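Worked example 3 (structure in, sequence out).
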């Protein structure tokens, strides 16, 4: 309760002064749960139930025991609770702990956890991201029209249905069947029994009655049933509420309606799936936090500086809970509008979709898991792609989309604004860099993994040149420096140029470089002049680039020697001198060693200039 009410008068009166922002209820519940683990361990170890009677060593042993079964981040919560029992002691009836088992140390330092600035949230793998986002948009853009239309139809006929006098029921059925546009709602075919296929309750509501029109317990009810069965035998049927569901191409190559039978129960399940699809799509493409998406209200899509945006409440690290704008694209605005049409909550766009059902409002994690299960279960009808199994959390959408947009010009500043990070370093900070960090799993889709790594190292080389550092020695280094200088001049001439503009220009420069341990090769396949590895040799068919096994670094004009390479060449010089001093070495071997020594010293002379 103290965590949920840190500024309560009773807490302040006890002399406990905490930050004003309450902890999240889920975090508080998680930490309260650690008390059960403490009690269970005390019973196992024969320790007093009163924690204030424990020795400091008992708490240390408890944490060591938790480290054997939990991750460090989970154990950290146990340390936080134990330290809080001491900090909150004056406000607790039991008095709390008389001493902090780890005085002067933050909880994470107790476990040796250091803040490296790395974001631990993983990205969603591409093999999951593409089918998940594609399926969510298909639900919104294709299936959503049918779902909303069926909902409006069902709600309309329910609103007009009434109770009729028994003498009116047979004429009511006869008149309804007389209209050739009316079709009987049926479930999937039941062999040999057309009456079993009819959804009698839905048909009763469609006719406009609330009576038990087709009661088999009286002759009139059985007669009305026979009239309906005759219509079924004549082919006047439809699968559920709608007869014209959108057709899709199914996995087996056939075409047909995306749903086999849209009856009221299935309609509700599909409405839930549609709402979940809207959440997933907004989370994926808006980069909003889960709490911010859940605070989106009806009619919250507005124009902000000439672009569509959604207004919501920013909660994280902001006790003022201000309204903020997140820029979105038109499809995301469509998703929010669709969710708003489904929601029965008076204010929120993401809420319950049916009164009186077992739909527990809206839970983000459950929404993601439920949507994936539904897509995979019914894809034989919907034609949607398979979504691989795996845990997908709301925060992973924010991380993944940030990573995908990292290479666009100006993205760091734009992401800092969109992610609502603290305004440092031109509206971006270390958190922004953590979100945009590249993920190897995506290298195959964004670029070739090797090309991505090479450009990152080329970018580091360019940054070193910008700082005035020596990037290398030799003619190849001079050519690279000239190219870098041309990129710098072009960037300075560009209006509002920033680091992203420079990196974009650097990428377009198409610098050919292969990084190595002893040298970097700058061979240009389009102009391989001076490449010693290609002289007097036959290049294998289909091979492109340098022949690495024939590399002659000291003699090739395409070799770039960086400062990081020089120590290896100096060690090689010492090794060669040691070998030359070896007694009884063969003259031919000594001649070869002297030739190698000359090459090594040629490289070192370049570095000494």
């Amino acid at each position: 309760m103290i965590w949920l009410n840190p500024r309560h008068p009773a807490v302040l009166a006890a002399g406990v002064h905490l930050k004003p922002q309450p902890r999240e209820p889920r975090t508080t519940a998680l930490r309260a749960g650690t008390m059960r683990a403490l009690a269970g361990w005390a019973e196992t170890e024969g320790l007093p139930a009163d924690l204030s009677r424990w020795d400091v060593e008992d708490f240390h042993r408890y944490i060591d025991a938790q480290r054997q079964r939990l991750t460090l981040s989970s154990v950290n919560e146990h340390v936080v609770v134990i330290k809080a029992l001491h900090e909150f002691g004056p406000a607790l009836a039991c008095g709390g702990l008389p001493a902090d088992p780890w005085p002067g140390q933050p909880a994470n330092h107790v476990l040796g956890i250091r803040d490296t600035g790395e974001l631990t949230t993983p990205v969603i793998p591409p093999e999951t991201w593409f089918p998940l986002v594609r399926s969510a948009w298909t639900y919104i853009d294709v299936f959503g029209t049918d779902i909303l239309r069926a909902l409006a139809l069902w709600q309309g006929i329910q609103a007009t249905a009434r109770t009729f006098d028994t003498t009116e029921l047979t004429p009511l059925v006869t008149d309804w069947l007389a209209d050739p546009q009316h079709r009987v709602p049926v479930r999937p075919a039941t062999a040999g029994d057309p009456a079993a296929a009819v959804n009698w309750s839905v048909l009763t509501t469609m006719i406009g009655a609330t009576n038990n029109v087709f009661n088999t317990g009286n002759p009139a009810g059985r007669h009305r049933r026979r009239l309906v069965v005759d219509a079924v035998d004549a082919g006047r049927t439809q699968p559920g509420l709608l007869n014209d569901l959108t057709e899709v191409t199914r996995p087996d190559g056939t075409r047909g309606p995306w749903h086999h039978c849209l009856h009221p129960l299935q309609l509700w399940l599909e409405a839930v799936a549609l709402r979940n699809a809207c959440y997933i799509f907004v989370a994926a493409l808006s980069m909003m936090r889960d709490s911010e998406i859940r605070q989106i209200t009806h009619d919250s899509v507005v124009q902000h500086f000439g672009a569509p945006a959604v207004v919501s409440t920013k909660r994280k690290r902001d006790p003022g809970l201000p309204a903020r704008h997140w820029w979105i694209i038109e499809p995301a605005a469509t998703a929010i509008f669709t969710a708003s049409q489904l929601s029965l909550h008076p204010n929120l766009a993401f809420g319950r979709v049916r009164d009186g059902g077992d739909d527990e409002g809206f839970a983000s994690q459950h929404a993601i898991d439920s949507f994936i299960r539904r897509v995979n279960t019914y894809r034989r009808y919907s034609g949607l792609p398979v979504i691989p199994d795996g845990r997908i959390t709301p925060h992973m959408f924010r991380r993944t989309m940030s990573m995908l947009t990292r290479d666009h010009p100006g993205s760091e500043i734009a992401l800092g604004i969109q992610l609502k990070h603290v305004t440092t370093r031109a509206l971006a900070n270390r958190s922004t860099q953590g979100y945009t960090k590249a993920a190897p799993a995506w290298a195959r889709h964004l670029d070739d993994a090797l090309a991505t790594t090479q450009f990152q190292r080329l970018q580091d080389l360019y940054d070193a040149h910008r700082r005035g550092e020596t990037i290398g020695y030799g003619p190849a280094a001079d050519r690279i420096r000239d190219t870098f200088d041309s990129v710098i001049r072009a960037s300075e001439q560009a209006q509002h140029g920033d680091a992203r503009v420079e990196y974009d220009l650097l990428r377009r420069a198409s610098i050919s470089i292969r990084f190595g341990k002893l040298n970097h090769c700058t061979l240009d396949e389009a102009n391989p002049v001076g490449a010693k590895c290609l002289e007097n040799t036959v290049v294998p068919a289909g091979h492109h680039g340098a022949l690495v096994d024939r590399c002659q670094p000291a003699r090739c004009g395409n070799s770039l020697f960086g400062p990081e390479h020089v120590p290896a060449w100096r060690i090689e010089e010492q090794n060669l001198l040691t070998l030359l001093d070896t007694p009884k070495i063969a003259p031919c071997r000594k001649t070869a060693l002297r030739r190698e020594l000359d090459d090594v010293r040629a490289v070192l002379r370049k570095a000494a200039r």
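Notes: Strands lie at 184-186, 237-239, 247-249, 255-257, 301-304, 307-313, 323-327, 520-521, 559-560. The two ends are 70 Å apart (CA to CA).
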